[in-house]
Amino acid sequence: MSNRRYTGKLKIKLGMYTGDGEATQAITGVGFTPMYVEVFPEPVDGGAGYVFCKLSHTDWLTWCVMHNANSHIATKNRINSIDADGFTVASFGADTIPNTKDSTYSYIALGNR
Q1: What pLDDT is recorded for position 62?
Q2: Confidence band (pLDDT; 50, 70, 90) for 80?
Q3: Is pLDDT larger for residue 104 or for residue 97?
Q4: Whether the predicted pLDDT of 2 surpasses 70
Q5: Does residue 71 register a pLDDT over 50?
Q6: In angstroms, rounded to a whole number, what is the distance separating the alpha carbons of residues 61 and 43?
Q7: Using CA of residue 35, residue 110, residue 20, residue 47, what is the dihedral sign?
Q8: What is residue 59's predicted lDDT score, i.e. its pLDDT?
Q9: Using the 8-state DSSP alphabet, how is residue 60 labeled?
Q10: CA gap 53, 51 in Å, rounded
Q11: Taking Cα atoms as reference points, which of 110, 109, 108, 100 lies closest to residue 44?
Q12: d(CA 94, CA 80)
């Protein structure tokens, strides 16, 4: 079975950004439209190891799991959108992960366009 939507060479971008504390923040400069994004907060004092993810195709995964030492919590729309040159993170209330002011986040973006 072939899937023509995802043909060609895989593009991978590893990057970092700093949260600005606002309700949303566009992360640009990826260089392509991602098909998949994961965001990882930098641990603070051995804290939570949350992971936020999003696929670009709306029929696919829209939920992701936040993992930490004590729980696994399903969450939705922390990565609000996939954009032409990156993605937009959204917090539930200003200054919360994945956009806490002055906090550092790493990401991996995958695509082929």
Answers
A1: 52
A2: confident
A3: 104
A4: no
A5: yes
A6: 25
A7: positive
A8: 45
A9: S
A10: 7
A11: 100
A12: 14
Report the amino acid identity of residue 66: M
Q: Indicate the helix (H) or strand (E) that contains 51.
A: none
**Residue 101 is which amino acid?**
K
Residues ≥6 apart with Cβ < 8 Å to 51 = 38, 39, 40, 64, 65, 66, 67
Q: How is residue 12 written in tokens?
A: 């991978």
Identify residue 89 by its one-letter amino acid code. Answer: V
CB 19 within 8 A of CB 107: no
**pLDDT single digits (tens) 91-101:** 776 557 788 88
Enter the tokens of residue 19. Answer: 């949260």
Q: Judge contact between 86 and 109, C-beta under 8 A.
A: yes
Burial 40-65 (b: 16+ CB within 10 A, else e): bbeeeeeeeebbbbbbbeeeeeeebe
Whether residue 52 has pLDDT greater than 60:
yes
How far is Cα 53 from Cα 64, in angstroms, rounded to an integer?
6
Residue 86 has pLDDT above 70, yes or no: yes
User: Is residue 102 packed enough to be buried (19+ CB in 10 Å), middle (13-18) or exposed (0-12)?
Assistant: exposed
